[in-house]
Structures are given as C-alpha cells and as structure tokens.
Amino acid sequence: xxxxxxxxxxxxxxxxxxxxxxxxxxxxxxxxxxxxxxxxxxxxxxxxxxxxxxxxxxxxxxxxxxxxxxxxxxxxxxxxxxxxxxxxxxxxxxxxxxxxxxxxxxxxxxxxxxxxxxxxxxxxxxxxxxxxxxxxxxxxxxxxxxxxxxxxxxxxxxxxxxxxxxxxxxxxxxxxxxxxxxxxxxxxxxxxxxxxxxxxxxxxxxxxxxxxxxxxxxxxxxxxxxxxxxxxxxxxxxxxxxxxxxxxxxxxxxxxxxxxxxxxxxxxxxxxxxxxxxxx
Length: 280
What we know:
The structure is a single chain. This protein has a single domain, classed as Sandwich (Jelly Rolls), CATH 2.60.120. The chain is 25% helix and 26% strand. It has five helices and 13 strands. The longest helix has 34 residues, at 2-35. It is globular and about 80 Å long.
C-alpha cells in the first residue's frame, strides 16, 4: 500500500510539473503576441483624413544589390525580448544540430519540411504576426509561411550561400547580438573579374533584412566565424566615423529566417541542397 501511495504522489507531482510548464509556455507565447500587437502588418494606406495608417515599405539601401530591403529597427527592445522568450518556448523538442565543424549552431524549423514545397504546418501565432509584419515592411505580396530559427553561439558564422530554387525570397530578423553580413555576387552569375564589389551590412538586434529578386538569386550571403567584426568601408549602414570600429559578438545570436516557398505539385523540388537543413 505504501508503494502505491508513493507512486501516486510521484505521478501527481509530475503532472503538476507538466501543467506548470504548459502554463508557463502558453503565458510566454501570449506575452509575445501582446508585445507584437502594435507591429504594422499591412502596407501603408491613406485614410480619409489624408494620413497613412501604417508605415510605408522599407526603402532600398544604397550599396545593397537590387531586391534587398533593410529595416534597422523592425522590433523594439521589449518586442525583441518577448520574441526571443517565445522562440525558446516554442522550440523545445525541435532543436537539431546544424552548421559546420567550425561554425556549429542549433536549428529549429517551423512551417513544414525545409526541403519540401508544400507547407504542412501552421506557424505559431507570434511567428505569423512577424511574417505579416515583414511582408508589409518589405513590400512583399504575401507573408512568408516558413521559419528557420538559428541559434549561434560565440564565434559561429555562416558559410556563403544562396537559399536555392525552392524559395523565392527570404528575410532575416536578428536577435540577441550583432554580426557583420557580407553579400557578394555568386560565381554562377559572373561573380568574377568585373563583378560588383561585395557589400557589408551590420546586423544589429531588432533589424530585418529582406532578399528578393537579384539580391536573392544572384548574390550569396555569409557571416565570418569570428569573435568580433571590424567595420569595413563597404558597410552600407554605418557612418564614416564608425569604419574601423570593432564590434564584439554576443555570447548568443539568434536569427529568424523567414522564407517564401515555391509550391510544386510534385511536393519535392530537385536541386535542393543539404544546406537547407544544416547550413542555414
């Protein structure tokens, strides 16, 4: 009888713990949704009073390839904190190892399989809100329906790559810490002698970068593995007085990569490389 009572008490404690964890999880997701309630999720439209109801799409940035759009303050600090907490809550049980031996990272996938064209899973509501906000700010016709969360630690970087033909465009929200992104012409599109020079962009927490058109298909993007980044003259979003400054990497940097998939009736598209799973 004592053993039965002990087991019953242990089971009751475990169930209370699970209930508490679920309650905390739901509260965290709900807090992110509330924090994002003021995020504009539609392009600017002129009201009857002549004033715009929301912000206009982000303007192109001089020095970036055609099709790139940059929003330096897409999320406020409080929104960043709420989203990062929600990402951690929603990603429990989803993390897989990715990257390379020199630049390892964790990856959590939302929206279906990265290597399949059909979206089979709805995004959590806070990610849906972010996707709608990105579409509005970047001038896209529809919100992206897939998100890859990348968790970088310390010196980890990102090998240069394009995102491939399964997607038509991509957008990145940076959280937690800064990193210097390099964009350069892809070799397959004439990225040799006479090609445009590389461009650099300092990704600070809360910013959003969208890549579409030539910026998506004809330019690669990557981040060096380093403990700190030195701002080069080719960095398009800093002042002249900041060139040469050293920006230390944070212990943790998280990127939310939203992609617009190209749907195909066959379900899987040929030519999709393994980096969709491990090299994002």
